[in-house]
Automatic annotation (TrEMBL):
One of its GO terms (biological process) is endoplasmic reticulum to Golgi vesicle-mediated transport. InterPro entries: EGF_Rcpt_Signaling_Reg (IPR053202), FkbM_mtfrase (IPR006342), SAM-dependent_MTases_sf (IPR029063). GO terms for cellular component: endoplasmic reticulum membrane; Golgi apparatus; late endosome membrane; plasma membrane. Pfam families: Methyltransf_21 (PF05050). This is Methyltransferase FkbM domain-containing protein. It comes from the Eukaryota. Residues 85-253 form the Methyltransferase FkbM domain.
Length: 281
């Protein structure tokens, strides 16, 4: 005999539990997007810029490489949209500030480190900002975040350099974990953030998230979002060919490289070949 129970049993359980039983929230869940707009995303500032506290005034080679790539790819192009994940304080080692200030671009700045995010907010950037990490999964989740600096302040050159190497514990170097601080952070799919701000086209995507780049990209639907150029850092040299194959399968060609720094452009886009032609002049 089979007994079927119907009716008021559901009332004994919270809506949270019943919803959780269905599995993780999809990246495009309407309530999630509403939450991001209301509670997470900070809109572009309309106040005057507050620059002048760049903690790395002397450019490191990686920054010089990407700065040259930005100018070579985008030149005088105005009004584009960028995403910079691992935005730090919004000024030090920024790959997007020049586009914003000199070319009128806007975009989305993502920084998981809270102290760095407070410094970013103080810069009054003309871009959306979110104090979260990009999820290496297709759904939002909490995750352990490794920070090489004490998570209470920001202000020294060595501190900003260390914070540039912060990462999710899942992707952290084993040797670094033993001398780190940890905190729990909220991770959100890049797709969710783009939907929340209404950005279907991204001219420049900068991923400097210390090992989670491939996982983040694998969950971004490139049929839904038109991403033209990707700046990608990858430190594991033994995996470089796999990274290039991943990007090729997704429709990108390697436009330029400097050791662990990569510039990929969308195949057959107007950006393909620009840096190579520039070097031949």
């Amino acid at each position: 005999m089979v007994v079927v129970v119907v009716g008021p049993w559901r009332q004994r359980y919270s809506e949270h539990l019943l919803r959780s039983l269905k599995g993780p929230l999809p990246a495009d869940d309407p309530e999630l997007l509403h939450y991001l707009r209301q509670e997470v995303l900070e809109p572009p500032s309309g106040e005057p810029y507050k620059p002048g506290t760049d903690l790395l005034r002397i450019q490191v080679p990686s920054v010089a490489f990407y700065s040259d790539s930005v100018e070579g790819l985008f030149g005088d192009e105005r009004g584009g949209f960028f995403v910079e994940a691992g935005a730090l304080d919004g000024e030090s080692m920024s790959n997007t500030l020049w586009l914003e200030r000199e070319r009128g671009w806007t975009g989305l700045l993502v920084e998981a480190d809270h102290a760095a995010f407070l410094a970013l907010r103080d810069k009054r950037r003309r871009a959306w900002a979110a104090n979260v990490c990009l999820a290496p999964t297709p759904y939002p989740a909490r995750a352990a975040f490794r920070t090489s600096s004490q998570p209470t302040s920001i202000g020294f050159i060595t501190d900003i350099k260390h914070r540039a190497m912060n990462s999710l514990v899942e992707f952290a170097d084993e040797k670094a974990v033993s001398r780190s601080w940890f905190t729990m952070v909220q991770c959100v799919p890049l797709e969710s953030l783009l939907l929340a701000v209404g950005a279907a086209r991204v001219h420049l995507l900068v991923l400097d998230v210390e090992g989670a780049e491939r996982a983040i990209l694998s969950h971004l639907d490139l049929r839904r979002f038109d991403v033209q150029v990707v700046f990608l850092e990858w430190k594991k040299m033994e995996e470089v060919e796999a990274v290039k194959e991943d990007m090729s399968r997704r429709g990108y060609v390697l436009e330029a490289r400097r050791t662990e720094d990569f510039v990929f452009v969308k195949k057959d886009s107007k950006y393909e070949g620009r840096l190579k032609r520039r070097r031949l002049r």
